[in-house]
């Protein structure tokens, strides 16, 4: 509980800067110093919020020291560096991670005690940095942690959105969205770099010089200003940067004359345009304006980052003070996190040719040796296609370059592979269909990148055999797999200290935090009753904490002695939260029909579902509403509610995940096979000893192999069966399971209120048609899902067996460390080496 003793700045403890204090008393003095001399609030108050900012600033002092040493070390050694370009980073909170990675957690906890506060409470004051929306953004953040921990010279580049992902509020209407102003009060972790500012142009035209060289001129020029966030590695000095660009217009762009003439908006037009660029992550793109803005954001990231990268390269000339452009790919690796930063390709070409004077062949050689591309989805709607008309308007020079890339690519295919003539249309970058002429960003990436990778074995196989099959026949060596991973620091060591201590105790080492493969040594103890009881106690403690949280945010009281069953992720039809809800509805109906005696023989469950639906995704929002409606009935039904509860966890984000995952016993990863590229929360749950019910999709396949097929509740169609099953449905050959029909009928009967769920349920029915025909095969998989749930209920009754499976889940999760993933990227794609900052 929050202490009140700290409500004022301590007069007993001095305020002294001691930037790198080791002793808790000195740290306390340093925190006091920041409370007084870096104030953000009126003086003398020292409530948890003030204490958070002062503590964060104190920690930042240490980070800055390491950070500067890292910069100067990289500058001196001049190694090849990786630049990770991503439109999303889902960083979450930073304080626990920072004191943990710096190994000063205990000292800070002590210091705060002296000041009348508990570190646990102070960290809760921090707002999540939610500059991402789901797995792709969180993956980028895990990667940053691993890059620093592995001492790799690497940078993250992104945008400094003012409003990150929206805050979700649950009302009678379902989900409502509020802007999340994470910077409202100031972020203690970012440092503005007024010496890293670059002009980024939009619109304008191409000027052709008499020599034939071309130059992009005119249009609108916005300044990109760097805001750096330190990324400390775990117990190492290396502290890398996440560089986020902010858009600004200059004083020159402010028309004082117009302003004084009373035309305030016109006077600051460019300022307001600049503000739009970093205003929100994924602005709605239903309108032309929205599309244009998204494209501007993407280009803004690419242009600013590449100017910065090129600037750094040019700074480090050879002995003769000459820039050796041919060396560029041996100093720079650029990784495109999905297609959002594809414009880095034509932008690098433009900068090299038009600004640096290189010829096409030289520029192309450099670009293709520098850039690599990760694909994160096979969903057609997520494969970006930009209108050529919009692109010509916004980026005329880049369109010239893209046309040339495409022309040369087509010529190459025609001469080297005449057998592919009928495939050329699908392979080329520009789709010139006069109705909807577009640039296919994924194609541009595949044609230009030296390496293309998928994010789990199954996904990479699907890329090779389906989406990119014809490219594979041209460049078989270009395609790789890099199975995703998660950082064991945030996702076990820090979010689940109880379990971490047990693991360290039984392994007799804490080396597993940086060498997760060591977890496999837990296997030998899986049957040990002493470990089992410690394991169960740790799980229970996390469940109790979670129950408290759920009560606080939903008002629903849940029983830590029931099976905690969790599905948290973005709400999407392919992720099939609807399958989960229909299963819950069926379970509820059966419980109602049972005798009191029979009920007592069931396994009591608490089903928790959480996640945000994209604001304009109607069916996803209906699913959110349905979960809440089902919960409202089930949880207040006295006959049943000690055997089943259904809770919607509002506003799912990184911090909420850190609370849910340690307390989970079963988690659902139940996407239609072939549709979830990897999934990464499956890895987090398994690592924390949670069993998985899931399909053979994405990384589930590899998780099941690693932890043992007997420890995974498998069901459902396989990816290679899906196309046939869809065909069979279309031909009216599908006979739904009676349980499936019963569950739908129960919802239709109004058991959960009067909201019209027909449109949602109809999407699961019929043979075909828009929004019909059960594209995601919920009905087909329903019976095997229910059977798997019965196996779960049985297994949970045998606590020893369950706990053993739980231990084996953790023991088998070593492969899913993002340290492993990043080491593979470094060796096999980026060709970079570690560059540890010397300790002395
Ligand atoms: C995703 C995939 O859907 C998900 O399966 C994968 O784990 C992550 C990270 O590779 O990438 N692709 C995507 O666009 N989002 C994802 O989460 N948002």
TrEMBL record:
The keyword Iron-sulfur belongs to this UniProt entry's keyword annotation: no
One GO cellular component term noted in the UniProt record for this chain: cytoplasm
List of residues that carry N6-(pyridoxal phosphate)lysine: 684
Nucleotidyltransferase in keyword set: no
Record InterPro entries: Glycg_phsphrylas, Glyco_trans_35, Pyridoxal_P_attach_site
Protein keywords: Allosteric enzyme, Carbohydrate metabolism, Glycosyltransferase, Pyridoxal phosphate, Transferase
Listed GO MF terms: glycogen phosphorylase activity; pyridoxal phosphate binding
PROSITE patterns, alphabetized: PHOSPHORYLASE
Cofactor requirements of the protein: pyridoxal 5'-phosphate
GO biological process terms, semicolon-separated: glycogen catabolic process
EC number, UniProt record: 2.4.1.1
Catalytic activity of the protein: [(1->4)-alpha-D-glucosyl](n) + phosphate = [(1->4)-alpha-D-glucosyl](n-1) + alpha-D-glucose 1-phosphate
Top EC group: transferase
NCBIfam families assigned to the protein according to its UniProt record, in alphabetical order: P_ylase
Functional summary from the UniProt entry: Allosteric enzyme that catalyzes the rate-limiting step in glycogen catabolism, the phosphorolytic cleavage of glycogen to produce glucose-1-phosphate, and plays a central role in maintaining cellular and organismal glucose homeostasis.
Family stated for the protein in its record: Belongs to the glycogen phosphorylase family.
Protein name: Alpha-1,4 glucan phosphorylase
């Amino acid at each position: 509980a929050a202490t009140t003793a700290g409500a004022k700045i301590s007069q007993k403890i001095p305020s002294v800067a001691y930037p790198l204090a080791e002793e808790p008393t000195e740290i306390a003095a340093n925190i006091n110093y920041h409370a007084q001399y870096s104030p953000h609030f009126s003086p003398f108050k020292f409530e948890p919020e003030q204490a958070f900012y002062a503590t964060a600033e104190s920690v930042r002092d240490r980070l800055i020291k390491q950070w500067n040493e890292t910069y100067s070390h990289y500058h001196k050694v001049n190694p090849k560096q990786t630049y990770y370009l991503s439109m999303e980073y889902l960083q979450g909170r930073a304080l626990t991670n920072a004191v943990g990675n710096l190994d000063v957690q205990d000292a800070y906890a002590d210091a705060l005690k002296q000041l009348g506060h508990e570190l646990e409470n102070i960290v809760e004051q921090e707002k999540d940095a939610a500059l991402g929306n789901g797995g792709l953004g969180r993956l980028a953040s895990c990667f940053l942690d691993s890059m620093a921990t592995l001492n790799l010279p690497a940078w993250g580049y992104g945008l400094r959105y003012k409003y990150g992902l929206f805050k979700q509020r649950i009302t009678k209407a379902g989900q409502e969205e509020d802007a999340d102003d994470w910077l409202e009060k100031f972020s203690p972790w970012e440092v503005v770099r007024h010496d890293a500012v670059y002009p980024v142009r939009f619109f304008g035209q191409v000027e052709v010089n008499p020599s034939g060289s071309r130059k992009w001129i005119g249009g609108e020029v916005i300044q990109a200003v760097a805001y750096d966030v330190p990324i400390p590695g775990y117990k190492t000095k290396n502290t890398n940067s996440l560089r986020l660009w902010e858009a600004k217009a200059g004083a020159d762009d402010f028309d004082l004359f117009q302003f004084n003439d009373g035309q305030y908006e016109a006077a600051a037009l460019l300022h307001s345009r600049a503000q739009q660029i970093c205003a929100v992550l994924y602005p709605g793109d239903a309108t032309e304006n929205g599309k244009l803005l998204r494209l501007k954001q993407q280009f803004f990231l690419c242009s600013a980052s590449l100017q910065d990268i090129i600037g750094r390269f040019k700074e480090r000339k050879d002995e003769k003070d000459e820039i050796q452009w041919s060396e560029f790919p041996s100093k720079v690796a650029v990784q495109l996190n999905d297609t959002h930063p594809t414009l880095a390709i034509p932008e690098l070409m433009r900068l090299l040719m038009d600004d640096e004077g290189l010829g096409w062949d030289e520029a192309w050689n450099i670009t293709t040796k520098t850039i690599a591309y990760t694909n994160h989805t096979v969903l057609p709607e997520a494969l970006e296609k930009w209108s050529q008309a919009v692109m010509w308007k916004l980026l005329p020079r880049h369109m010239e370059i893209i046309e040339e890339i495409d022309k040369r690519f087509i010529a190459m295919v025609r001469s080297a592979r005449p057998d592919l003539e009928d495939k050329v249309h699908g392979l080329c970058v520009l789709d010139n269909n006069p109705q909807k002429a577009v640039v296919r960003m994924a194609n541009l990436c595949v044609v230009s990148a030296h390496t293309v990778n998928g994010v789990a074995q199954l996904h990479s196989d699907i890329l090779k055999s389906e989406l990119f099959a014809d490219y594979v026949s041209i460049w078989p060596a270009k395609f790789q797999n890099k199975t995703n991973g998660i950082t064991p620091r945030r996702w076990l060591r820090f979010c689940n200290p109880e379990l971490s201590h047990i693991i360290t105790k039984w392994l007799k080492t804490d080396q597993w935090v940086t060498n997760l493969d060591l977890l496999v040594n837990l296997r030998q103890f899986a049957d040990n009753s002493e470990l089992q009881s410690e394991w169960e106690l740790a799980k229970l403690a996390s469940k109790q904490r979670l129950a408290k949280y759920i009560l606080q945010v939903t008002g629903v009281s849940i029983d830590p002695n029931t099976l905690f069953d969790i599905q948290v992720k973005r709400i999407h039809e392919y992720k099939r939260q609807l399958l989960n809800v229909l299963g819950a509805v069926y379970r509820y109906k059966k419980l109602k029909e049972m005798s009191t005696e029979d009920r007592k023989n069931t396994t009591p469950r608490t089903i928790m579902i959480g996640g945000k639906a994209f604001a304009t995704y109607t069916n996803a929002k209906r699913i959110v509403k349905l979960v809440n409606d089902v919960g409202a009935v089930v949880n207040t039904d006295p006959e049943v509610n000690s055997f089943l509860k259904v809770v919607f966890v509002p506003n799912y984000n990184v911090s909420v995940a850190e609370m849910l995952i340690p307390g989970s016993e079963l988690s659902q990863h139940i996407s239609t096979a072939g549709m979830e590229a990897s999934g990464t929360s499956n890895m987090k749950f398994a690592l924390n000893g949670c069993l998985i019910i899931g399909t053979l999709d994405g990384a589930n396949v590899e998780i099941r192999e690693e932890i043992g097929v007997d420890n995974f509740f498998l069901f459902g169609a396989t990816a290679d069966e899906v196309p046939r099953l869809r065909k069979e449905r279309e031909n009216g050959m599908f006979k739904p399971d009676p349980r499936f029909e019963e569950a739908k009928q129960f919802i239709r009967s109004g058991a959960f209120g009067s909201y019209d769920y027909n449109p949602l349920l109809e999407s699961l029915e019929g043979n075909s048609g828009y929004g019909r025909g059960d594209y995601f095969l919920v009905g087909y998989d329903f019976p095997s899902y229910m059977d798997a749930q019965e196996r779960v209920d049985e297994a949970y009754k045998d606590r020893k067996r369950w706990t053993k499976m739980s231990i084996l889940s953790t023991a088998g999760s070593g492969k899913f460390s993002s340290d492993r993933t990043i080491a593979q990227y470094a060796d096999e794609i980026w060709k970079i080496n570690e560059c540890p900052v010397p300790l002395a």
